[in-house]
Every structure is written in C-alpha cells, then in structure tokens.
Amino acid sequence: MPDSPALQPRKRRLAIAAWPSSVFGVLVVLVGVVISMPPASAQLKVATTTADLASVAREIGGPAVDVVALARPGEDPHFVDAKPSFIARLSRVDMLIEGGAELESGWLPALLLGARNPKIALRQPGRIRANIGIEMLEIPTSLDRSQGDLHASGNPHFLIAPSNMRILARRIASGLESLDASNARAFQDRLKSFEGRLDSKLLEWRSRLEPHRGRQILGYHNSWIYFAREFGLKVDFVIEPKPGIPPSARRMADLITAIRENDIRAVFVEPHVSRRFAETLSQKTGIRMVMASQYPGGIPGTEAGVIELLDRLTGDLARALEQPLGK
Amino acid sequence: MRVSVRTRSRPQSRVESKCLSFEAVFWRDVDTMTRKLPADEGHVHPIRGSRSFTQVSLAMTVLALLAGINVPASADDAQALQQLRQQLDRMQAEFEKQQQLQRQQMDAIRRQIETLQGKPGVQAPQPTAPPTSPTPSTTEAPKPVGTGNSTLDAGKAWSPSDPIRLQSGRSLLDISLNGTLATGGSTASQIDGGTQLGGHDPKVNGFTLQSLELSLSGMVDPYFRATTDIALHLDSSGESSLEIEEAYMETLSLPGKLTLRAGQFLTPFGRHNMQHVHEWSFVDSPVAHARLLGPDGLRNLGGQISWLMPFRFHSELTLAVQNSAGETASSFRFDNEGEARFHRQLGDLRANRLGDLLFTPRWSTSFDLTDSQTIVVGASSAIGPNASGAEEQTRIHGADLFWKWKPTRHQGGFPFVSWQSEALIRRYQAGAFDWDLDGDGLVNADGSELDGNGDALPDVLPRETFQDYGFYSQLSYGFRRGWVVGIRGEMVDRRHQAIYEGLFGDDTDRLGRWRLSPNLTWHPTEFSRLRLQYNHDQRRQIGADHSVWLQMDFSLGAHGAHKF
User: By CA distance, what is B438's nearest residue in A?
Assistant: First the structure.
C-alpha cells in the first residue's frame, strides 16, 4: 500500500479550487451588507396577505402608507403560492398584516423565513395578526382531519363582518402610530372618519337585510358565518361537506332537499370556487346565485374597498332574498 | 407579562358587554392599550431595526443583544406611563361618547317601537332618517360555536399541563409524520442500483417503504429556529434503520438579510436535492441526481450562510460549507464501503484540513413574468475533495429552472402548469491507483486485487479526470382540483470514455441511459396522495426496461408551509 501513488503524502498545498469561489462569496456578502441598507423613505411600506386587510390599512394609513396585498382578490387565500417575489417584498416592508387563525399557514411561514425582516417578527408593532382581539367562531373542540381541514384557532373568515373590521382598523391605527408617531394625528383622524362611515353604512346595510332576518343563505365553503351573524342571517348549510372536500352527488341531493325545505333563496358564488355546484342547485331549485367575495376586487366593481364590497354584497343579497324560490 | 394582562381582560369584557357595539368599542380600546405596550417596550428592544445594527459586526450585535436584554427600561418608564395615562383619558372620553350615541340610538328605536305599536296601520319605518332605521337587535346575536373557554391564540401562554396541539402556531413544536409507500414491479433483472438508483426509490418487485419521515420544527427563542427530519427505513430484508436527514438550527434576526444555519442539512444544490420524498412530483429520484450527487442526494453536517440581495426582485446567494465525507456526499470523500468505484479502491486519505470541506455556493433568482406566471433560475456548484487520492477533487456544477403558471382565480391551487428542469455536470479527478495491494506484483487468489484485462497482473490506473453529465425535465399539469398529470424525460451519460474504461472495459456507472416517465397523481386532500407512474428505461449495453409503480403518501400532523 505505501507505494501506491494514491497514497502519497499530501503536499502542503491549500490552493484548492474552492477557495477562490468561497473568498469571492464572502466578499460579495460583505459588500452586500453595506449596500443593503435601504434609504429612508417617507412612506411606511405595508404588506397584507389579502385584499380586505389592505383596504382597511389604506383607509387608516392614507397617503402616509404604501399598501400592497400579496394574494390577488379573487384568489383562494388558503392556497396562495409562496412566490419568491413575495419574499423580496416582505423583506422591505415596515409592517405586515395577516389574517391569522391559520388562514395563510400554507404559505406565509415560508415567506417570513425567507424575508428575514425583524420588523415584522411576531410581537413587533410591525406585525398585526388580525384574528387577535376578534371573537373567533367555530373553534374546534378536537382536531381530527377526518372532519376536513380544520382551523385550530377557529373560522378565519371574520373580516367580512363590519364589527370585526372596526376592531382591526383600531389595531392598524395604533400599529401605524407606533411606527410613525409624526402621523399619529392623521391616523387617528382617518380612523374616526372610517369608523363614522362604517357606522352609518352599517345602519343602511342592516336595514336592507332586516326584512330577511333569520333566513338561511348557502355558501360553498364555511366562510360566511361572521357575515350572517352580523346581519341576523343563518348559514346552517354549506355546499362542501367538510372543509376542503368537494360535494358528492348524494350531498347535492341532500342540499336540494334542504333548499326547498328551508326556503333558502340565495347561494354565494365566490370567484375561487367552482360555479358548477351552485349552477346545478340553481337549475334544480331556482335558488339565486349571488356573486360574492370577501375580498375587495374579488367581484368586479368592488375594487375601491371593504365598504364598497359590503354595499354590493348586502344589496345583491337583499334583492336575491326578496323573491321566493322559482321552481 | 404584559401579554397576560391582555388575555385576562378580554374574556371579562366579553362576558360583561352584552351589546355588540359596546363590546366592539371596549375591545378596540383594550386593543389599543395592548398594542401600544410593545411599541414602548421597543425603545429597549435589541432587534428592532435600527440601521446602525446593519453596520456593526456580528460580535457587536451579540453584545448589544445581551446588553439589551438586561438593561431595565427605567429611563423610558416615566415617559411611557405618561403617554399611557393620556391615552387612557382619550379613550375614556371616546368610550363615553360612544356610549351616549348608543343610548340615543336605542331611545330612538324605543320611540319607534312605541309609535308603531300605537299606530298599527303604519307600513314601514322611514328609511331616510338614520337614527330611526332598524339597528341590530344585539342581544339576539347567536352564541358562537365552541366559546366559553376563550381560546385567543397568540395571547395565551402555553403551560406544560396544556396538551401539545399538532397545528401550526398553536404549539411550541410542530410535529408531522410523512409516510410514502410504493408498490409495483419492473422487467429489470436488477432494480435496486440498476433501474432505480435513488436511495428512496422503489427497490423491489412488491412493496417498498420509500420513506417514513418524522419532522419536528419550531422556534427555539427569538433568535433561532430549529428543524429536525428523521427518516425511518425498512429495507427489503425487513431491517429497520434510522437516518437523520436534517437537523439544524438557523438564525431568525441577523441584520443585513443574512441567515446562518448550522447542523445536518440538505446541500443547497439545485431544486431536487433540497426536496424531501413527499415533495417530489415523481415516484423516484432523477437518475442524474442519484448518479452524480449520490443515491441519497447531497447532505452533510455543516454550516451555511445565505443572503437575500437587496433588489426589488428575489435574488439569493448561499454558501454551504459541509463535511465532505460519508455516503451522503458520495462523489466526494466516500470510500464506497470498500467496493471499487471507477475501477479504483477508494479510501479517505485526507488530513481533514479546512480545505478538505465541501463548498457549495448557490445563486438563485426569481421573477414574476405576469400575475400568474413565475420563473425561478439558479446555478450551483459543489466543490470538494474526493476519496480517490490525496489531492483529487470533484466539482459538480448545476443549473436549474422552474416555471409555474397558476391563474389568479385558481380553485384550491388548481389548475396549474409547472415545469422544472435541471442540468448537472460532474468533473471527477481520479487518482492513480495500483491494484497490487500486497506489493508482490501478482494477482491474489482471493480476487481482492482487480485484474480487469485478464493479463494475470494487478491493474494499474493512471491519474485522470473524466466528466459525466445529466439532466431531467419534468412537466406537471394540474388539470382539475386534486388531479395532476406529469411527464419527465431524463438522461445521463459520460462525456468521454475514461482511460480506465479504455483499458479495462466500460463502467456501467458511467454508461449512457435515458428514461421517460409519465405519471398521474390524485390528491384526495392536501394530506394524502396516490400516484401511478410508468418508467421506460433505456440503458446502453443493457437495453429497455419497463416499470410500473403505485405510490401512496400520507401526511399527519402539522402542515408546513409549501416552498415555491
């Protein structure tokens, strides 16, 4: 073995080709640290996971903030891709507003790790989890996925209820204040104005739906309970049998019976769920399809914000509920 | 400590305030108070993004962190107290104002009811006058399901007597178990190491437990997170074994968009090498990866620094420095468990100097082409010593591309089209080797000294460098919710016949082969998967082989976020 050429003692020669590249890498990193300090900008940069959160943030922040929503308004917020461009964006923001309650748990954690932004770490003023302070509904007493994809923290579709919007608006205002004290006055003023508009609109929306108090409405996913609760409606039936499970033929037959028995007059059709099931139900029972979304811009004409969205939703729903089932 | 104040005050407020609007106002105020607190704390919080931090060295950061934790907030306390008092006064005033407004509204409704009861002929209230329009009958609000125990999430501190809930964000530790089982068969006479090169591939006609992975991950403290991924194996002889696939800790809040990682981790080389079995889009590992990086891919103990570059688009530089020995770095300092490789006997001959580590730089960048199309490109190199000699080195270079289309109005992530491709080239310096191990000049009778050309003399191999390359390209189309059809084409070959092959015959570990694999996948939910795949293998000097595999996959427990 000693005379095997492969076993010749190694010469004192460290010029291994890994060195130039690693030294270069370290240099690039060091230079990068210095140039990565961003210039001070007057506007606070705010990212939100969904468009409804962005709308409330814009209401409060006004011109002092630059708000961008990651998910498109018509997109299912449970199934957003953790695109690297979102990482780049989150690495630059001063504030992140998320829905919380595991709405974004399939994608946001990956983005946050990549973004490396201490400003939006948990418990920083730059991180707002909207579900904190909200009275969550449907918190499961046991977690068992044979019951579908349950959310341990409760139903995460709470922002469509104006009373929850108000709670969030308040939290966003105090979050923005602590990040930008010079604009505290403006944020408070805008908060008051938003709340004022919301209050007066709420009376209008309630008066629209008041004649239908106690009536059942139908959704695809169990995402309308907060809305129903706010306006005295009921959503005891949803098209999907369990969260994330599409309905079977049997389920559809049961739904048709339920619609007729309970005189359910309207079914919400959201852009991110198949229209197929609602269309079938509508053909069979005459139940009216109401184009709906929980996100401003999810249905055309509601891009302006949550107030415009609720205006549209309550109006369309009230009209649909007025007429009895066709067939 | 302050957080616990918040959790105590909330349930009380819920019980006391019957009226929705009161509740909302009260909550809002409680909220403002609690949200203010972290802000004031922030004056002494060490990791809040003060710019100076990015300029100081790492050592200074650590010192500052320690100092920041221990320094009491005495200087700011008085000021904070003052601010809070003012705020409380403001809110008190606001609260009373709201209360008054509410009372007025209630009075208005009462009057309206009285009017209506007095005059039964009246049809409807005046919709134009806001105070008289119907307001919510707040007491009627339905009882929320499952309340009573107020389980507000992040506010509630975990205590050891609480159950650990296996769900993201609710427990100190996310636990998940992923099982992948395959069944099927092949026309190949040798499946394991023949048609199927990957360590996690189906290996026999019959059933294979491809992987049973226990993942534990969570935040260690405000500065670190940790992940462990333990793979349990059950080989074809029924023997169970355990393998630490990953176990590392990683920083959370370094300045300058840097992340440091230390431990056992998948080497950041390309895309496939960083994916666990349950993340694959196909039943098996690409042949190029299994042959050039190793049957189990490339992973080892080491450290890694990665830097998110300060651009508007995503661009990341990573440098991993890992041990270069062992079977999970099989093109490097792996002795091949005594078996000859490249017609040589391999052995770890290194002095274990700093330069004997495995260096893997990687750069990747990504763009959104449109709202629905994203592209990721990357380039990686793995450079380190190999086991064929004291000075010999292996360099593997790779380029990868990933493109995905998913319309913004997708339903549960469907439909989508994704295209993933990787190309690799390996440059292997093989040391000179003399098979005359005992120095007698003759071939041993026990066959421990190779004689490839049959001249009854031990083979002697010169020092040489040879190159192998390979690529795969796979297309997946999620055509309806839960259903994905995919096709993968791949090949691997040598660039030249090596000198040793010219002398002693072609090496089957280097001969060209290609494979075409269509498959169909059904995800009943996100947590289970069935996949049917056909492989058409074509190997030089061996010929065609056909394999069909059915793969089943389950995922229990915490559902981690998907990487893109």
Answer: A1
Query: All domains of chain A, ordered by start, with CATH?
Result: 44-199 (3.40.50.1980), 212-322 (3.40.50.1980)
* C-alpha pair distances (Å), A323 with each of A265, A287, A316, A317, B196: 8, 10, 12, 11, 64
Question: Which residue is closest to A235 within chain B, CA to CA?
Answer: B142
Query: For residue B46, what is the DSSP state?
Result: T
Residue A204 pLDDT > 70: yes
Return the CATH number of B219-224+246-557, one of 2.40.160, 1.25.40, 2.60.40, 2.40.50.
2.40.160
- Domain edges within chain B: 2-137, 219-224+246-557
Residues of A in contact with B258 (CB under 8 A): 29, 33, 116
> What is the per-residue pLDDT for B237?
84
Max Cα distance, chain B (Å): 123
Q: Phi first, then psi: what are they for B503, rounded to 5°?
A: -80, -40
Q: Check CB contact of B22 with chain A, cutoff 8 Å.
A: no
The SS3 assignment for B342 reads coil
Mutation site for B-interface testing, chosen from A80, A145, A239 by largest number of B Cβ within 10 Å = A145
pLDDT category at B212 given cuts 50, 70, 90 is very high
ipTM entry: 0.81
The whole-number pLDDT of residue B77 equals: 64
Question: In chain A, whose CA is at the least distance from the CA of B223?
Answer: A118
Question: What is the nearest CA distance from A187 to chain B, expressed in angstroms?
Answer: 13
What confidence score (pLDDT) does residue A106 get? 87
Distance from CA of B245 to the nearest CA of A (A): 20
At B180, the pLDDT band (50, 70, 90 cuts) reads very high
| CA gap A118, A112 in Å, rounded | 10
Buried b / exposed e across B411-438, counting CB within 10 Å, b at 16+? bbbbbbebebbbbbbbbbbbbbbbbbee
Nearest CA in chain B to A242: B525
**Residues from chain A contacting residue B259 (CB–CB below 8 Å):** 113, 116
**CA angle at residue B236 from B233 to B240, to 5 degrees?**
35
**Average pLDDT of every residue of chain B:** 78
What does the alpha-carbon distance between residue B182 and residue B212 come to, in Å, rounded to a whole number? 12
Facing A109 at nearest CB: one of B55, B353, B561: B561
Within an 8 Å CB–CB cutoff, is residue B312 touching chain A? Answer: yes
pLDDT tier, B349 (very low <50, low <70, confident <90, very high otherwise): low
Q: Which residues pair with B264 in a beta bridge?
A: B247, B301
- Picking from B321, B409, B479 by the largest number of A CB atoms within 10 A of its own CB, the best residue to mutate is B409
CA dist B486 and B1 (Å) reads 53
Rounded Cα distance between B472 and B493, Å, is: 12
Chain B hits for A143, CB-CB cut-off 8 Å, are: 165-167
State the pairing for strand pair B373-385/B513-525. Answer: unpaired
Q: Which chain B residues are closer than 8 Å to A131 by Cβ?
A: 153
Three-state secondary structure of chain A: CCCCHHHCCCCCCCCCCHHHHHHHHHHHHHHHHHHCCCCCCCCEEEEECCHHHHHHHHHHHHHHEEEEECCCCCCCCCCCCCCHHHHHHHCCCCEEEECCCCCCCCCHHHHHHHHCCHHHCCCCCCEEECCCCCCCCCCCCCCCHHHCCCCCCCCCCCCCCHHHHHHHHHHHHHHHHHHCHHHHHHHHHHHHHHHHHHHHHHHHHHHHHHHHCCCEEEECCCCCHHHHHHCCCEEEEECCCECCECCCHHHHHHHHHHHHHHCCCEEEECCCCCCHHHHHHHHHHCCEEEECCCCCCCCCCCCCCHHHHHHHHHHHHHHHHHCCCCC
C-alpha neighbours within 13 Å on the C-beta side of residue B493? 13
